[in-house]
Amino acid sequence: MTRKANLRWIMLLAANVLFWCMLSFQQTRGAGTRTTAPSGGSGPSAMQQRAEIIAQLKEIKAEVKALVTLRQNGALPAPEPSQP
Questions:
Q1: What is the pLDDT of residue 71?
Q2: Closest by CA position to 44, among listed 60, 32, 33, 55
Q3: Do 71 and 77 meet the contact criterion of CB atoms below 8 Å apart?
Q4: Residue 25 falls within a domain, yes or no?
Q5: What is the pLDDT of residues 29-75, one digit of tens each?
Q6: What's the CA gap between 49 and 75, in Å, rounded?
Q7: Cβ 44 vs Cβ 50: under 8 Å
Q8: What is the 3-state secondary structure (H, E, C) of the chain?
Q9: Is residue 52 included in any domain, yes or no?
Q10: Structural domain count of the chain
Q11: Would residue 17 count as lying in a domain?
Q12: 79 part of a folded domain
């Protein structure tokens, strides 16, 4: 390679290192300073969301259990295999 091409690669590498260093400092600096939720605190908290998801999963589990029972009793026909 020529000396000019080497200089370009070195400058590109230095710019990338500088960019990634600035990006990492921005992420670590902003991590501990946030006092409210990102949406301004108007949405549900994480605990409320978790409780809602757990309730929905319990409903789904009960429905699946009911479908399995119906399938085992013969009340539901066997699913037809899908063709690709």
A1: 86
A2: 55
A3: no
A4: yes
A5: 555 555 555 555 677 899 999 999 999 999 999 999 998 898 888 88
A6: 36
A7: no
A8: CCHHHHHHHHHHHHHHHHHHHHHHHHHHHHHCCCCCCCCCCCCCCHHHHHHHHHHHHHHHHHHHHHHHHHHHHCCCCCCCCCCC
A9: yes
A10: 1
A11: yes
A12: no
Rg (CA), the chain: 28
Structural domain that includes position 17 = 3-29+46-73
pLDDT tens string 2-29? 888 888 888 999 999 988 888 887 765 5
Structure-token pair, residue 73: 């009793």
Helix (H, G, I), strand (E, B) or coil at 60: helix
CA distance 39 to 46: 12
Token digits of residue 36: 């409210």
The rounded distance, in Å, linking the Cα atoms of 67 and 81 is 18
d(CA 16, CA 20): 6
* Residues 6+ away with beta carbon under 8 Å from 37: 43, 45
